[in-house]
Here is the input.
Amino acid sequence: MSYVCARTGLKHHIFLQEWVTDGSSPIGMNLWEWLRRVARVFQEEGIRRLLITIVWRQPVYRRVVLMQRTLDQPVPDPSVRVPVVVDLLKETEVDEYINFRPNANPSEIRSLLTRGDRCFVARHEGQVVHACWATTSYAWIDYLARRIQLAPDEAYTYDIFTLPAFRGQNIVSTVMSVHVIPYFRGAGFRRMITSVLPENKASIRGLRKAGYQPFGVMGCVKLGPWRRDFFRLI
Ligand SMILES: CC(C)(COP(=O)(O)OP(=O)(O)OC[C@H]1O[C@@H](n2cnc3c(N)ncnc32)[C@H](O)[C@@H]1OP(=O)(O)O)[C@@H](O)C(=O)NCCC(=O)NCCS
Here is the structure.
């Protein structure tokens, strides 16, 4: 399926190609699972609690802003305010990554690396202070429980994180501009894509400085077992 953005004239051809709902996610729950939950709440807590659960707890409205950057555009000149050394995370360095993100699961990190995802890490005085993951197979948007198949010349960045003490130092834009974008451009890719919550102003600002522009909003509305997904260009 393809869309042409009225503002940029760019053709977006990957989105909605493949949207797969993950049954394990609370917002991707199937009807049978939902009915079992309804029955359990009714049995254990009565009709009043059931109605409250359905009316107040179940509705979901979620959306993310999709941002993109075509790789034929020039890379802005970044000015990182703290010296960092950027490298790809190796499988032998997973423990170091866990020190940086203690809530991460080491086996998940290993399997991401094994499937070919790249993790660009920035170290300051030997300590990992920032990481940015990138994949070329498919994008998984956990918040929406959505999987998006990428076109062969597209890369998707996700789970960008800077340690709180190092934020606001231009690390995101520098890692993107000097490492991630040249890496994928050199490998023949044409477009970088990412998703971000509209409220995440720091992330949007950092990405904009690296040349990313918002181009769409993707989301879902859910009430009980009913779910409607949407996508619109901006
Ligand atoms: C989002 C995040 C990665 C940004 O990292 P960073 O290293 O601080 O990014 P940068 O310094 O390159 O750019 C951030 C920009 O946003 C600005 N900024 C920070 N908070 C802001 C806010 N609330 N509103 C608007 N701009 C904000 C910074 O001032 C900076 O812009 P400037 O250099 O023009 O002043 C970091 O805040 C973070 O790890 N957040 C938690 C995880 C997260 O939300 N990840 C993004 C998932 S998509």
About this structure: Residues 160-162, 167-173, 196, 200-203, 205-206 surround coenzyme A (CB under 6 Å). The radius of gyration is 20 Å. Confidence is low (pLDDT under 50) at residues 1-26.
